[in-house]
Structures are given as structure tokens and as C-alpha cells.
């Protein structure tokens, strides 16, 4: 049994207060941060009675769980558990595997998912961002989530995989359906979407296996040929990886771009600072990741009894890591942990997780956000809400579905430069 972290003193007291509904999609789609703050102070390893799982609020505890895959497995599901259904698992897919299989798979996939593969996307990404932003009529405003935040990540994944341009919109429908299973408004059901995706990716893989696209250097072509220690990726591995990229890379990055923009709208001084000092944009992207935590949580299952802060986590119980809380932990980020500060540095946030499963797409997500904010801030000197922000009803990635905004075009010379460049 593990007991590295001291117990909290006031257990009896806090059990009287009404516990926040950590099992509820609406909780994550709303403003969970005040409840996180309260729980960090009173009940940082908290039991959710309704769905029967533990939730972790403190940074160090989440690091501990993420870096001990032998004690906390990903193979029995990674979503907030729901007693009405078995925790979904796509057996064998990277994110649902533990070492040693996880290490083998990750090594193979890393060989294709390199910095270079990501960097070669930048010119295309910038062109997409410019086209999307230039299409905005500042006077009329725009639906920011749908028109700006959503298409970029989808297009980048399509580019990575070497999928033809005309499939982009279909990509997006599948991805929404695959991630938004808690959302009654999503029409296409998850299983239909997964089936259609499988068939589509089978075609892309077959084209590369049979040599029809011999000279292409997209990620999928690299992975088809990848070999580490005499081991290669099977068709099944590749299919699952394509699906994982789509699910893991779309809604998450869309959320970062939309919620980052919303954070700037709500903090006009920070908006101005960033416009005056665009060199701060990479630092600001880290702060958007910390402050908004686009992925609310990931879950693990204890493989044996573990004690944390005086609470006994039993073998077989689920433990949910609340990244949004870790990212505002006063012990790590100090007295300004609840504030947006685009100059914050260092910023050791856990928005991409850490340890074994830390986000494979982190560099791509950072690049997408950096380029988008560079182009956005060069063009517009003011952004304001023009209607209600609507969130997906989901526990893990409560994405932004609608975010109408009005923008004012910049009058300074950088705007002209951005358009010309
Ligand atoms: C802002 C954007 C993103 C955020 C906040 C994010 C967050 C995360 C987190 C927290 C994990 C850890 C999962 C765990 O510990 O169980 C993860 C894993 C992963 N992410 Fe991301 N992600 C983002 C974008 C992307 C993109 C753009 C891609 C690829 C196109 C991607 C692909 C993956 C994959 C494949 C994994 C699984 C890695 C493994 O199991 O070894 N993510 N991501």
C-alpha cells in the first residue's frame, strides 16, 4: 500500500457540505473552478458517491497517478465512470494500453510523429488560418467556434494523414459524434461514426500498403513503413491510431482556441498586452492551456489498494484526475493561480497530462494555437461577445459549440503586414 502524501485534517467537516456533481457533464460544461478551489482546500482526494469513483484535485497527486501506470491502469477505461454502462475501452489503442505494450506502440508511433512532421504543416496551417480570418466580416461578426476554432484542427489532422481536402467536413461530423456522446444534440451516433471512420481509414491505409502512394511523406505513409526493433504496426494498430488522432486532436484544440479567445475577451488588458507584444504569444498559449484546461480530466483504475492523503483507494476503483484543478493549484502556481497572466513563466501546467500517456499531439496543438493567435491579433484590435457561449455536455472535453463574436479590424500597420505576409 502506498502512503506518500499526508492526510488532510478536516475530513469530517467537509462531508457535511454538498459535494459538487463531479460525475455530471453539466458541471464540466459550466464553471467548475470555484468548486475545485473549495475541494483542493477541504477534500483533495474526494469520493463521488453517485457514480462511485475518486477524484484528485492536487497537482502532485495527479502527477503521481500519471507516472505510476503499474498502480493506475489505463486499460479499464479513461473516462469518468458511469455505473449504468461499462467504461468504454478500445482495446489495444495507444491511450488504453499500459506498459510494456504502450511503450512499444508509442516508440513506433513517435518515429513518425516527429517535430519535423509537425513543423512542415506550419505554412499550410498559416494559409488556412488566414483564409478563415480574412473571410470574417468584422461588422457582421462571426460564429467563432464553428468558423474559426473548429476547422483548423480538423484540417491539420486530415493533412497529417494525407486525406483528400474534400473529406474535411465529413471528418468533423465523425469527430463530433465520436467525442460528444453525452450530448443529445449531436445527431450521428458514436457507433455509426466509428464504423464509417474505420471503413474510410481502411481505404487510406490500403492505398499506402499497396504502393499506390509510394512517394508520399504524410504521417500515415511514414507509420506504414515504420519499424522499431524488428516490430511494425499492424493494420489494426494503424486504424486505431487514425481514430485516436481524430478524437484526441480535434475537439481538444478547438477548445483551446475558443476558450483562449474567450479568456482574452474577458481580460481586455491581457488582450492589449498581447497585441503590443506578439512575441509573448507562445507564453500566452501555455497560459491558455493552464487557465482553460481544454481536457477536463482523464481517469485510471487502481490495480491494487493505494492510500492517498489518508484516503484508501481500493483495487478496481476508478480515479479521475481533474487537470483544471491541478492547473490552478496554489502550491504550484502561487497566489495568482486563479488569474490569467499571459506572461506567466515558468508554467508547468498539466493540460497535456504527464508521464507515459502525455499528449502525443502537444507540439501540433501548440503550433496551431500560436499561428491562429498570431494571425487573429494582427488583424483585430477588439473582440467582444455577440451572444451566448454554448458548451458540449461532456465530462472529458466539454467543447465550445457556439461562440458568436463581433470584431473590430486593427487600424495599425501590423494588419496590413499580416494580410500581405
Ligand atoms: C489543446 C489540445 C490538446 C490537449 C489539451 C490534449 C490533452 C491530452 C491529454 C491530457 C492526454 C493524456 C491522456 C492520458 O494521460 O490518459 C493526451 C493524450 C493524447 N493526445 Fe492530446 N491533447 C491535445 C491535442 C492533441 C492533438 C492535436 C493530437 C494529435 C493530433 C493529440 C493526440 C493525443 C494522443 C494520440 C494521446 C495519447 C497518448 C498516449 O496514450 O500515449 N492530442 N492529450
From TrEMBL:
Pathway membership, UniProt: Steroid metabolism; cholesterol degradation
Molecular function via GO: cholest-4-en-3-one 26-monooxygenase activity; heme binding; iron ion binding; steroid hydroxylase activity
The keyword Metal-binding is assigned to this record: yes
Keyword list, A-Z: Cholesterol metabolism, Heme, Iron, Lipid degradation, Lipid metabolism, Metal-binding, Monooxygenase, Oxidoreductase, Steroid metabolism, Sterol metabolism
Cofactor(s), names only, from the UniProt record: heme
One of the Pfam families matching this protein, by short name: p450
Entries under CDD domains matching the protein: CYP142-like
An annotated GO BP: cholesterol catabolic process
Xref: InterPro entries: Cyt_P450 (IPR001128), Cyt_P450_B (IPR002397), Cyt_P450_CS (IPR017972), Cyt_P450_sf (IPR036396)
Protein name: Steroid C26-monooxygenase
